[in-house]
Amino acid sequence: MTEVGIDAIEIWTGKLKLDLPNTFAPAKDEDPEKYTKGLGLESSSFPDVHEDIVTMGANAAKRLMERRGLELDDIGRIDVATESSFDNSKPVSTYIAGCLEQRFEGNLHHANKGERKFACVAGTQSIDDAYNWIKAGRHRGRSALVVATDTALYARGDPGEATQGAGAVAMLISEDPDVAALSTEQGYGSADETDFLKPNQQFPSVDGKRSMQVYLARMREALEDFESVAGDTHPDDFAYIPFHTPFPGMVRRAGLLGYRHMIRDTEIEDELAGEIGRQPREEEFDSWEAYEGAIREYMDDLKETDAYRDWYGRVIDPTLTIARNVGNWYTGSVHVARASALKNAAETGRKLSGEKLLVGSYGSGAQAEIHAETVQDGWKDEISDLNVDEQLARRHDIEYEEYEEIHDVHNHDKGIDIDSFTQPSGEFVFDGWGDMNQRKYSYVE
Ligand code: CAA
Q1: Has residue 1 got a pLDDT over 80?
Q2: pLDDT on residue 274
Q3: Class of domain 4-444
Q4: What are the residue numbers of the active site?
Q5: Fewest C-beta atoms under 10 Å: which of 59, 285, 337, 359?
Q6: From the CA of 380, how far away is ligand 1's center (Å)?
Q7: DSSP alpha helices (H): ranges in 286-443?
Q8: What residue spans define the domains of the chain?
């Protein structure tokens, strides 16, 4: 059977950096450790004045294509996943295709283009669409370009402001992929929820605490649904588990919940029984509340055990390295987590070919999706070509007043006009407005 999956990955970060403990926390009169220890964040990425979801996506896609020696004719579809779109009709993928056509020979007239929306899970859904298109044999030997690109801004003063970020992940989905082959098995947890939404408004309406509960509830449902087709999961089955990462503190909770679920009725639960007892079973309790209270106590004990800490340090923590320094990239976030894990494996000399990842995606509103991936032989060469560390180091570190300005630049209701903080070089830039109110783009050598 032909494997289909992720053949190449490229990351493009917004070119500005907001230091959360040292710049943001003092301006908000808050303890820096709320960011570093509580949320698990060091800094956020922001788009410079000349950047937006199109430039970041197009710059990631261009670098990916150049690195892999691809031509426009090799691409049969372009799907953009975003929750920051600025056009209700013309998809962002057409703007990105227009940019690529400025730099590569030929055109993308043969390519099917679209835009996917379901909050942060849309990036994974776009991969899914590409997988199905290839598996159906409709791709004529071509690959799909999936671009997850977002400017994740919250209204100023919203608690979500601490978790902002901006960047794009471009992924090539092909037959016989170099990085990871996707499992046929998938699990879903999907329900009509109003935890985070943008009803025709730029900045989200968020019920932050509830959104965290909904994330965990849908993720758990998705894991159970995945197990119903793929069989029970065990913590040792997976080299890494990249989760959607709105902020690393959220993944800390998801990791603990997942571990508790996976060790139930296993030798790990037996081994831990002497230390912290066995997991409470629902049938042992008179009420749901009593059962939930007992589960919470068990989890509090579980997270202090060496077994859990060791597993978390190996399987979850390495997925968070990039997120800690860029914040939430919405649709790109789980794909940043995967890249972060693979990068960790490459840097520590870990042999990963044939090993499995479990990937947990989530979008508010709300839907979680879980599938497995098998790491392919070409993973290391591909990941070693990422230059994300250089990009992060090159970001311009903004003062708090500059943060307020750049937030206003990207606020559709304000749109103030200031000079860029960085000098564009070798990249697509936003170049003003056309006579039909379209955004225009050019390439700066
Ligand atoms: N030292 C150490 N830790 C501290 C601290 C200090 N001085 N001060 C606070 N903390 C800890 C808190 O205890 C808390 O940790 P726990 O949750 O483990 O208890 C953490 O830091 C955050 O502090 P608060 O809960 O007080 O923070 P907050 O109320 O200001 O906001 C938030 C947190 C609700 C997540 C907010 O940032 C938010 O609304 N974010 C946007 C919504 C979001 O990201 N939701 C996630 C799930 S939805 C999703 O995933 C989709 C998506 O991408 C948006």
Answers
A1: no
A2: 97
A3: alpha beta
A4: 83, 120, 244
A5: 285
A6: 34
A7: 288-302, 306-311, 321-326, 333-347, 379-384, 388-394, 400-409
A8: 4-444
Percent of the chain with pLDDT over 70: 100
Ligand 1: does its nearest atom lie under 6 Å from the Cβ of 327? no
| Residue 243 CA to ligand 1 centre (angstroms) | 17
pTM of this prediction exceeds 0.70 = yes
Q: Model confidence over 376-393: pLDDT tens digits?
A: 999 999 999 999 999 999
For a substitution probing ligand 1, which of 20, 34, 333 has the most ligand atoms within 8 Å of its CB?
34
Give the position of tokens 């570093």: 36
- Report CA Rg, the chain: 22
> Which tokens in the block code for residue 333?
């976030």
Model confidence at 72, pLDDT cuts 50, 70, 90, reads: very high
Angle at 305 between CA 302 and CA 309, to 5 degrees: 100
Cα-to-centroid distance, 4 and ligand 1 (Å) = 37
Question: For a pocket test of ligand 1, which of 39, 41, 194, 336 has the largest count of ligand atoms closer than 8 A to its C-beta?
Answer: 39
What are the helix (H) ranges across 112-174?
A: 122-135
Per-residue tokens: 226: 């995945």
* 168 backbone dihedrals φ, ψ, rounded to 5°: -135, 145
DSSP letter, residue 282: G
Q: Which residues contact 210 (CB under 8 A, 6 or more apart)?
A: 195
Q: Whose CA is nearest to atom 18 of ligand 1?
A: 38
* Nearest atom (ligand 1) to Cα of 253: 18
- Residue 120: exposure state from Cβ atoms within 10 A (0-12, 13-18, ≥19): buried
